[in-house]
Amino acid sequence: MNENTNHNDLQVKISNKQILSISLPIAASILVPQINFITNNIFLGHLNQTGSEALAVAGITGVFYLIFAVIGNGLNNGLQSQIARRAGENNVSAMGNLFYHGIIIALAMSVASMLITWFVAPIILRATMHNQQHVNMAVSFLNIRVLGLPFLYLYQMRNAVLVGTNNTKLLFYGTTAEAISNIIFDYGFIYGKLGLPQLGFNGAAVASVIAEFVGLLVIYFVVKWKGIDQRLRLFSNWHFNWALTKQILTTSAPLVAQFALSIITWEYFYILIEHHGSTALAVSNAMRNVFGFFGCFTWAFASTSNAMVSNIIGQGLQHRVIELIYKIMKLSVICAVAVCIILNLFPQQIFAIYGQGANFMNAAIPTLRVVSLALIIMSVAVVWLNAVTGTGNTKVNLYIEILAITIYIIYNYWVLEKLQLGVMYGWASEWLYWFSMLIPSFWYMQKGKWKNKKI
Fold this sequence. Notes:
Layout: H1 16-45, H2 51-89, H3 92-119, H4 121-128, H5 132-145, H6 149-164, H7 171-191, H8 201-225, H9 228-231, H10 242-274, H11 278-294, H12 296-314, H13 321-345, H14 347-352, H15 358-391, H16 394-418, H17 423-427, H18 429-447
Helix pairs in contact: 1-2, 1-7, 1-11, 1-12, 2-3, 2-5, 2-6, 2-10, 2-11, 2-12, 3-6, 3-10, 4-5, 5-8, 6-8, 7-8, 10-16, 11-15, 12-13, 12-15, 13-15, 15-18, 16-18
């Protein structure tokens, strides 16, 4: 019997049950790394004497590291859409080849990212940041933190396989192991507990690197334990194929550029915020945690949109793609509205965990009102944007991103640097950004030119 007829479970169905069965495990896997970020910030916020400075600088370093993290995520999303397309076609042998070549690209990218951080980042930070102490803290932290990039990139390649083949439940194991180890080593290295050296601010970097290695190790054993590596022939073909590598890069490169531009722009935003002082920077760092933690369901539905759209197209059901997107979008909006209500009902309780003073609280609460509404807009925009990714025409994603960040940069420069308005007005740029994403993505998918795109 042909191998391509034995794996019908790789093909998805257009139903709320199928959407939730894919998205909820993804949400859990996204939630755990966000817990890591928040844990770092909580521990850093309670450092004696330097807590406020550490929390402020963590915003700069966190977003800088996120630039390289999303570069890996761009490769992951491009690979995921191709694996999902092969899953829709029930072409198992092609999945293993895609995975192997994805690993090669990921390792090369991680080395390049580390070299850029060690040799280029200090120059950029010294030229743009006003506080020399912040610069020294950020450079020292990042020199350690980027050592985790090879582990993170390889972990993301595993995620591409699990999401692309509807095995999202298995994501939970690696992310849970990562979260637990991060909390333990944060406590140990930041404060010098559990027999570990006290490294203060840099302790969070060491803890995160160890946690990423643990997460990768656990998910590797889970894939072996479940036999997924044999079923999908992940390691059956070690022959390098330049044509396949080029195919992956062609699909992923626009996403890598899109995500990198997005976070580089966010780093620019944080540098502008740094000019307003440590409190404004600490508040913005807290907002990043809010976006990451409470937006996990939104990003899960976004990833589901990418995988399911590509799978459905692989099944030859292009005429049902818009129906699928609307189903995913409705569930995404319901979750975002619920999150918005929670955030606006309990803002003081949320920010109390950072252990900061009244000035922090007074600036953070009105900013949270703005951010909570932005989460609702984002819940719609990312579903349509990732549907574009699922069609395989990732250049369109890049063009949309360029439009959105141009508007974002102009707005923030004028509001924060020229008019010197408060942090709340800066975060209002998220409204403009996500509307700028939503409108062209919606238009492109409704137009229907993607229906004959081959990947």
